[in-house]
Write a structure and sequence with these properties.
Layout (H helix, E strand, L loop, with lengths): L6 E5 L3 H9 L6 E6 L3 E3 L4 H5 L9 E3 H4 L6 E5 L2 E5 L4 E4 L4 E3 L2 E4 L3 E3 L17 H20 L3 H7 L1 E5 L3 H17 L13 E6 L10 H13 L2 E5 L3 E4 L3 E4 L2 E4 L2 E4 L3 E3 L2 H5 L9 E2 L5 E2 L2 E6 L4 E2 L12 H19 L15 E5 L3 E5 L4 E3 H15 L3 H17 L16
Parallel strand pairs: 1-2, 1-9, 2-5, 9-21, 11-12, 11-17, 12-13, 19-22
Antiparallel strand pairs: 3-4, 6-7, 7-8, 10-18, 14-15, 15-16, 20-21, 23-24, 24-25
Helix pairs in contact: 1-9, 4-5
């Protein structure tokens, strides 16, 4: 193997892809980074863009800028459509192909509607900046339309926001939207009282935040209820349309429906013709390689990685970063002539979720925190992982302003309005 010419192609500039690229600094490789968007997204704070707390520029950064000092890295804006495993090429939608010696697919996840993709136009998910600005626009337009609506029933439907899914994203959306309606917007309208807004969190399971300890789920439920959020448990959604959502036997008129109930992996398994689970995640070997193709790795939300206790590695940023570092170390070891198997070992750092601007829950296993101490620790952890001093400062100031005044500055209705009804 000619180490100097070894070409590593990385598809996806998320947490895993960037961590891998960073860890390959100084190795005798050429790296090509391919992404269909030109920015890296700090997805844990995306819901704050959707709920007017942060601007898009505070949670996303141009990939080229992040990698500008890495002369060994070439960044390409492109849409991957397939992988030629036999020819060791990545195929792009413009008909071109990129040859690789080692391929790493870190392509993330997308929304999953459990076989009801027709619900997506009515209940957008939250995975991209475009998703966040769409949700922000729908929420703000609902208040604007309610201000002009004279029919009481239609006005109440406009002031009802339903969130499907009681995981961290659903909980964080519910808490922040309740604060937006009951605090930030209070007194700004003349014909409506935004405090009459109904925020309904719908969870098919028996409790919200099911990955957390039961006592933390209970705390989160009570904290949301104090904010005015109505929690509906034990009934799955059976219908969504432009006017309402149906769960169990309940028909809820709601003009804004947000989807936080499920995810599906990117098409990586389809590109590779590899075995996948029901969510589309590639069933990788213990070392994160694809069965039969040791030169191909799949990491992050696109891969199903099992822990020794039989549970899957969670689809969160820390696990993707750990996998990225592991693959980089494996590539370096191979370049050094090692052929020994290097199974991946996941270290769980804990679970975190915030509930509005003054409460959070944190489960580190050995210690569990709730309330404002958890909120401050949650905030410090997220600020630490942001890229660059300017962004850390900007987000910190935004949060302090919201904490002190309740006001959110990113309340702009942008993009075209497809919601004409």
């Amino acid at each position: 193997m000619n180490e100097a010419s070894h070409h590593v192609v990385v598809v996806g500039a998320g947490f895993g892809g960037l961590e891998l690229t960073s860890a390959l600094a100084g190795a005798s490789v050429r790296v090509t980074m391919i992404d269909k968007r030109n920015h890296h997204l700090f997805q844990p704070l995306l819901y704050q863009v959707a709920t007017t707390a942060l601007a898009t520029s505070e949670v996303a950064w141009p990939i080229r800028h992040l990698l500008r000092k890495r002369k060994d890295v070439t960044t390409l804006l492109g849409n991957v459509t397939g992988v030629d495993r036999a020819g060791k090429r990545v195929l792009l939608d413009d008909g071109s192909a990129i040859a690789y010696d080692t391929l790493v697919l870190a392509t993330g996840a997308r929304h999953a509607y459990f076989g009801h993709d027709e619900w997506e136009p009515f209940a957008p998910g939250l995975k991209t900046l475009e998703d966040a600005t769409t949700i922000r626009r729908r929420i703000l337009l609902a208040f604007e339309q309610a201000e002009r609506e004279t029919d009481p029933a239609r006005r109440q439907a406009l002031l009802t926001i339903a969130i499907v899914g009681g995981g961290p994203t659903g909980v964080e959306l519910a808490g922040t939207i309740a604060e937006l309606a009951h605090d930030t917007l209070r007194g700004e309208f003349r014909n409506i009282d935004t405090r009459q807004t109904r925020v309904v969190l719908i969870e098919a399971g028996s409790r919200i935040l099911s990955n957390f300890a039961p006592e933390l789920s209970d705390y989160a439920s009570k904290a949301l209820e104090r904010l005015g959020v109505k929690i509906e448990l034990g009934r799955a959604v059976t219908r969504c349309d432009a006017e309402s959502v149906v769960f169990g036997e309940t028909h809820l008129p709601a003009r804004t429906i947000l989807w936080a109930a499920g995810v599906a992996a990117s098409p990586a398994a389809e590109w590779l013709a590899a075995k996948a689970d029901r969510a589309g995640r590639v069933l990788v070997e213990p070392d994160l390689t694809v069965p039969g193709s040791p030169e191909i790795f799949v990491i992050g939300d696109a891969a199903l990685v099992m822990r020794p206790d039989g549970r899957p590695v969670p689809g969160v940023a820390p696990s993707a970063k750990q996998e990225g570092r592991h693959v980089a170390a494996t590539i370096k070891a191979r370049l050094g002539g090692s052929t020994a198997a290097r199974p991946f070992h996941y270290k769980h750092a804990g679970d975190l979720a915030t509930i509005g601007k003054r409460a959070a829950v944190i489960d580190f296993g050995w210690i569990k925190l709730t309330g404002w101490p958890a909120w401050w620790l949650w905030g410090l952890a997220h600020i630490y992982f942001l890229i660059g001093f300017r962004n850390r400062l900007a987000v910190s100031l935004s949060w302090l302003w919201i904490y002190a005044t309740g006001q959110r500055s990113a309340r702009l209705i942008t993009q075209g309005d497809e919601d004409k009804s």
